[in-house]
Design brief:
- With 247 residues, the protein is an all-alpha fold.
- The chain is globular, with a radius of gyration of 18 Å.
- The chain is 79% helix and 2% strand.
- It has a two-stranded antiparallel ribbon with strand order 1-2.
- It starts with a helix and ends with a helix.
């Protein structure tokens, strides 16, 4: 069982990293947006007790991880349902627990790589000045917090029409980023969007990191909304999977 889990996790990790979509949408595009927004607003310009260079770094890292969880995990699950791969698994010795567990572990390993690459790129290009503790704590917050968006990806993966999942996934990723204040602060958005954005898990996800770089702890509401949404997405996906298997 352990051997199968390790082998499947390795295979899943290699598949993700070799995907051109991963390199483009999880690494290249977030970095491009980061350098664009940081340069447009001024890397050293003050914002929320920090600078645009650091503020945008946390925003775009969060944006990258949300997109990776939705596209590389959620949409991929939907394709595997549509293509009959999930039904085929039932004829193999690979158990559903090993299959989904290996996907989650490999996805978390890839998320860690994404964080390191984006942090290093920003730090080297813009000479970001953070303490070692801030780098580590922000990285850990973003890494562990990405589990909630993996749960969202799992819920998206319950769709058996992959084309529908792609459309919904793209809308979710962009909507969570824009309305959640990852591209521009909520204060610059229309008031109604700001009111909605404050309650989105994407905003609370980034807000925890923003607080850390400002020398504060993540707010209680950040934990509550991020954890609550993650649990809700997970329970809904489990319910749908179990109901489908029972039919």
């Amino acid at each position: 069982m352990i051997h199968m889990f390790v082998a499947q996790t390795k295979a899943e990790s290699i598949r993700i990293i070799r995907s051109p979509f991963f390199l483009l949408f999880s690494i290249a595009m977030p970095l491009a947006f980061y350098f664009l927004f940081a340069s447009m607003n001024g890397v050293d310009k003050s914002i929320q007790s920090t600078t645009w260079g650091v503020f945008s770094l946390m925003s775009m890292t969060a944006f990258s991880l949300i997109g990776t969880a939705v596209s590389q995990f959620g949409i991929r699950l939907s394709f595997e349902h549509q293509d009959g791969w999930v039904r085929l698994l039932k004829l193999t010795p690979l158990s559903p627990a090993v299959w989904i567990g290996s996907k989650i572990v490999s996805q978390m390993a890839v998320h860690l790589i994404v964080i390191v690459v984006i942090f290093l790129s920003a730090g080297l290009v813009h000479d970001i000045q953070l303490t070692a503790g801030q780098w580590i704590l922000c990285g850990l917050w973003l890494w562990i917090g990405s589990i909630s968006f993996l749960a969202l990806g799992a819920l998206l993966g319950t769709l058996t029409n992959a084309n529908t999942s792609v459309a919904i996934g793209n809308v979710l990723q962009m909507g969570l980023a824009i309305v959640g204040g990852l591209w521009m602060p909520l204060s610059t958005l229309p008031s109604w969007m700001g009111s909605v954005g404050e309650w989105l898990p994407s905003h609370r996800y980034a807000n925890g990191a923003w607080n850390m770089i400002a020398g504060k702890n993540p707010a209680s509401i950040d934990f509550i909304i991020l954890t609550g949404c993650g649990l809700l997405f997970m329970l809904l996906s489990i319910y749908i999977y179990n109901r489908r298997d029972a039919v």
